[in-house]
Amino acid sequence: MFADLPPAPPATAIVVTASRTPEPQSDSAASATVLDADTIQRLGEPLADSLLRLTPSASLATSGSAGSQAQLRIRGAEANHTLLFIDGIRANDPAAGNEPRFELLSTDLASRIEVVRGPQSALWGSEAIGGVVAVDSDRKAVTAATVEAGSFGFARVSAGTGFAQGPLSVALGGGYQRATGIDSFGGPGGDKDGYWNASFRGRAALTLGGGNEAGLSGFAIRARSDFDGYNPVTFLHADTLDNSHNRLSAGRAWLSHQDQDWSASLSASLLGSTNRNDLGDTYLNRTDARRATYAAQVSRRFATGSVKQQLTAAVEQENERYTASDAVYGGFTDQRRTRRHRSVTGEWRADWTGRLVTDLALRRDAFNRFHDATSLRASALLKLSEALALTASYSEGIAQPTFTDLYGFFPGSFVGNPNILPERSRGGEVSLRWKRRAWDASATLYRQHLKDEIVTRFDGATFLSTTANATGRSRREGAELTLGWSPSSALRLSANYAWLHATQQVEPTDTATREERRPRHSGAVLLDGATGKFSYGASLAYVGVRFDTDFDVSPAQRVRLHGYALVGARAAYALNSRLNAFVRVANAFDARYQDVVGYRTEGRSIDAGIRLALDR
Questions:
Q1: What is the pLDDT of residue 614?
Q2: How far is residue 90 CA from its own chain's centroid?
Q3: Are the C-beta atoms of residues 4 and 88 closer than 8 Å to each other?
Q4: 183 vs 155, 320, 600, CA distance in Å?
Q5: What is the pLDDT, as a whole number, of residue 16?
Q6: Could you tell me which residues come within 8 angstroms of residue 466 by beta carbon, excluding any fewer than 6 positions away?
Q7: Kind of pairing, strands 82-86 and 579-586?
Q8: Distances, alpha carbon 94 to alpha carbons 217, 272, 341, in Å
Q9: Tens digits of per-residue pLDDT, 364-410?
Q10: What confidence tens digit (pLDDT) does each residue in 341-361 have?
């Protein structure tokens, strides 16, 4: 079970993985990156996956043009090893292999994005092996609307509003975007693979007095994307009319208390998802899932002499229901499955005279369909001086088997394994951080080992594939460098570089091979600012050489995907106190690249629009 998150604090604090409760980033040993509302608006990206590409050690692989499947791998972990929260609700899709659906995540839902790297399962449970992404929407009572259009048939409209009246505050927002796209697999003249995406978010909070608050929040996403699938006769990639219809929605209710010594919360959330695949107008298959989450947490702050301490305890329960149906195999793949999950988490934080901050967390996850798991995290931050700090941490992560891993069935090709074990990761990192006036910098080294990795095996006796736990170990090690300079509101500049060595070993006797779709070298540069009537943002993302497997040849061959750099920029001009006009360019130098072998991506695009803010 996974706890819902507390409301997002100011940008100087970390919500998701630094602790079960918010804390200043300067007191956290976790490696974290925060993109605030100004950065998100000034860069102007329509989909959040393009922003995640700019964070350290984040490898993004998109299967074609915008709106196509987007898989994020943090520090070399798998695509289902990232835990996603949207407005405090765990949003990994149980109907899509427990993966976070970043291709569905519009920035209309995001006013703050936080990425915390490294295993965090001792705090937040399954899937938090590579890291955690927390997306929070705008909670301010601001009324604004934006209209934008441009290349590849792109169009976007969004709006938000809210009010605060006495103890009640309400914030609502939503948006719609679409594009005709490009022909991802074929060439010029083929059918274009476009998408549309509609999203809505809402939040209401009522202050009850005495440090108590009650609230409701939720989001809803509806989307369709066209993609090129497989020829049903040759089973090779082809220029097809495949399309996917997706729905992801969730709601959460909470009651919380906060005073000088105690904080406590009760919450319940419900998430539902539907994924339907068609070929043209012909139905192929669909998956549906529902997750109900119930959580309670209490924290006590106290001091023993000069040592400030905090103890936190949390209990959670999660109930999941999964269904699958098809028309392709005559209903033979149909599934009706349920599972239950309970957890207990404890955390102890201590600030030793302001120079040393330690954190110890322990979590026990009890699953009713497979083996239970225990996760540990221990970290320390030592302030060597006012400008310099040293951090070290040891952490463990787990990832539960998907419903397909356990029970999946495709006639003549695949059968699940109900005896599969959760994947486990453990390792550590050390970091040196420096901050002085307008400058900040950090250097981090990390190493992780993954065991019981869930892999696919072929049975020569039955000619069926199934899932199994690898007996070898996969290893990820790397380094991250960051540099920031913010001399004034007219310029905020940051840069990062990441080096990664990720290998997979299925059997102990196998030679370790380099993991696919993970660049050894990657980095990014971001800048944004405002002066006078102008505001602006720009980014450069570099992705080094990666490898992938081409299954359209026999035998399948490992292929090299060349590196590339993407440059984007946006500039806005205030026509008056309420109305802004802006222009945005993406892939400014028209880079030709593939994240997944065989799938083309979009070239240079230029969009323009206006934004009206009525509350200014």
A1: 86
A2: 10
A3: yes
A4: 18, 37, 8
A5: 55
A6: 414, 415, 416, 417, 456, 457, 459
A7: unpaired
A8: 21, 9, 13
A9: 999 999 999 999 999 999 999 999 999 999 999 999 999 999 998 88
A10: 999 999 999 999 889 999 999
With residue 614 as reference, give the H or E element that holds it. Answer: none
Of the chain, the percentage scoring pLDDT greater than 70 comes to 96
332 phi and psi, to 5 degrees? -70, -20
Say what the pLDDT of residue 508 is: 86
Phi-psi region of 233 (alpha: psi -120 to 50; beta: other; left: phi over 0): alpha
pLDDT band at 616 (very low <50, low <70, confident <90, very high): low
Q: How far apart (Å, rounded) are the C-alpha atoms in residues 46 and 27? A: 33
CA neighbor of 2 nearest in space, from 293, 380, 257, 355: 293
Please give the sequence-ordered ranges of beta strands (E in DSSP) within 355-508, or none if there are none. 356-367, 373-383, 388-399, 409-410, 414-415, 423-436, 439-451, 454-459, 464-469, 474-488, 491-504
pTM above 0.70, yes or no: yes
Q: State the pLDDT confidence band at 315, using cuts at 50, 70 and 90.
A: very high
- Long-range CB contacts for residues 360-367, cutoff 8 Å, separation at least 24: 361/20, 361/122, 361/123, 362/122, 363/121, 363/122, 363/123, 363/125, 365/1, 365/121, 365/125, 365/126, 365/341, 365/398, 366/341, 366/342, 367/339, 367/340, 367/341, 367/400, 367/422
CA–CA distance, 429 with 518 (Å, rounded to integer): 20
Which residue in 204, 309, 205, 210 sits closest to 257, CA to CA? 210
Cβ pair 105, 82 in contact under 8 A: no
Q: Are 39 and 528 in contact (CB under 8 A)?
A: yes
**What's the token pair of residue 337?**
């499955």
